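Researcher: Structure prediction, please.
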Amino acid sequence: MWPLRLAWALAVLGVAAGSSPDPSPDPSPDPAAPPPDTASIFADLSPAELRAVRTFLMSRPELGLSPSRGGPLAKNTLFLVELLPPKKRLALRYLDRGSPRPQRQARAIVFFGGQAEPNVTEFAVGPLPRPSYYRPLRFKAGRAVPFAARPVTQLEYELLHHVLAAAMEPLYRLLRDATGFWYHNCSGRCLTFSDVAPRGLAPGERRSWLVLQRFVEGFFLHPVGLEVLVDHRDPDPRRWAVQRLWYNGQYFSSPQELAERYERGTLAVARLAEPSPRQLFSSYEPRGRFATGTPTEVHGAKVCEPQGRRYRLRGNRLEYGGWSLAFRLRSSAGLQLFDLRFNGERLAYEVSVQEALAFYGGHTPAAMQTKYMDAGWGMGSVTYELARGIDCPETATYLDAHHLYDADGPVRFSRAICVFELPTGVPLRRHFDSDFQGGFNFYAGLEGQALVLRTTSTVYNYDYIWDFLLYPNGVLEAKVHATGYIHATFYTPQGRRYGSRVHSHVLGNLHTHLVHYKVDLDIAGTGNSFETMDLRFENISNPWSPGAHVGARGGVGDGVGDGVSPCAPAPGLIPPCPRRYHLAVTRHHENEPTSSSIYAQNDPWEPLVNFEGFLRNNETIEDQDLVAWVTVGFLHIPHAEDVPNTATPGNAVGFFLRPFNFFDEDPSVASRGPVIVRPLDPPTFSRLEIQRWTPASPGPCVAAEPFTYNGTYRPE
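Model: Predicted structure follows.
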């Protein structure tokens, strides 16, 4: 952990930068209509806007678009529609100077698979809510998106299933005898598969290793020892082919070769025990008992709001204490905060999730190939319903999300976001002022609370819980918890070098999680600087005792700003390239809105967004509009206690934004929550003055008795 100081601090924008001219502002609003909240320029597209964009693009004959679902793969389809945020300079003119409202636009991604040279093209579509134009967006790299770099669609998975079913037919007897399950023509005892990425070893390839698993609850923990390499680069699935197979530590060139080895009796067969129909080890069903016998059949502690909510939610604007911000949930990458202010003064223009990566080691071909970049798996679109009382407190406010991602219209994800105030369980600050004679001069404390904005991403096996926490003292925390099923492969003795045996035939593979955030701090404007504070020990003469020396720690500077403090550096398994930075600071450029893209997963060798290129121009970062890019992560060595799922304690990382000489004092002094206790008759302490600015009792959701305090510590 290492503190950094941002002397007046940093900044950036968000989403695919385009070369098209700036859109004109919105037409004059209806004078009779209420003024729109300024936060709405950052609001996600409504279902009506998503439908309008799709209808408009589908109506353009030159695009030749077809529905996404069904039909051939070699066709032109609309893959993704989401908000294209306004350029930063236009947004700031509107927010700060009263300039015209920026025109609302959508980002649309089209897969052009039905032409001689397939490619992927991104468009800006506007103006919303009634679009009339579309313009191509350009990446900084200045080249087209290769068709092989596109994310895998549901249609492509269906076609992969058919190819795999045909390939597995010769292996029916082997799979039935060894596992009790099979792949083709199955009904109740089916195998399924998980795929890994990158899909190949060089640009332009699209070869995926598929891991076969028993299709039972928690199938991620049920590999059967068979992995299959399928080449599916060609838009025509009739040209797809199985290239290699790996079974129980050996490679085979075809399913027929593997089947013949089994029939001849020369194959080392991995025979798996029948899965238990009850209390399956990968299931959440309770089993066993705690030794103490304390009750677990009753509800535990709950969050309550005894006098109602202390935050305000209006559309996509969130307010709490001194905080106000706008937020959205990008289908492409997840939560994004804009225009973060404290007591009306902007601290950050944008704070957002950029990418989540997991690099694995292993002995099987799938394990050694796995380097997940989750934006390429629709990380922001897999925001499934949050369970009331488990994923978020019962008292939370729940919001729906609408995604148009690999679909033929908007899809509503109920309760995808929650907002709630959380008791932290530790005082924000407190002090007991002892009189050192068994009594006290005063006690004062302020209970600890934070407002939480939360969503989740279930990226196949893993579940990420994404939090932004707002504290009353001007501190913002970004945090992510990793849970869900580990990415597991079939156990072989050689695999012990790359993980832990977590069940009889299951290896939990060693891996490193990395999460990338964008932090665009605009403190007292966009002209910010970055500096670090170096500390050193000095041996100085003691001025009040000649001849003695004092070891003093000295620092540099006491400027104003915010500090970025990662709460977990990211050691572990990191490939030598690309380079890893805990923190990188760059100048803001409109054509550098994101540090990754949805195409990086399937073409990491020639990425369209090359973050390393952001740093190579060696620009000055003094008194400029700056962006901080923060990387946090942890090494995960799976163990038996990761069954059935990885638990959240110990598997969370994040960072803090903390004011550094920005305020005259702790801004939480504005809270009316403190309690101050002063004795009126020391040394007897029989009468106390209790000062508080909230009701004497929180109400019926906690102990009904009013607050009391004694404070003495005398011998009995």
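Model: The chain has three domains: 47-137, 154-264, 313-532+573-664.
Researcher: Thanks, that helps.
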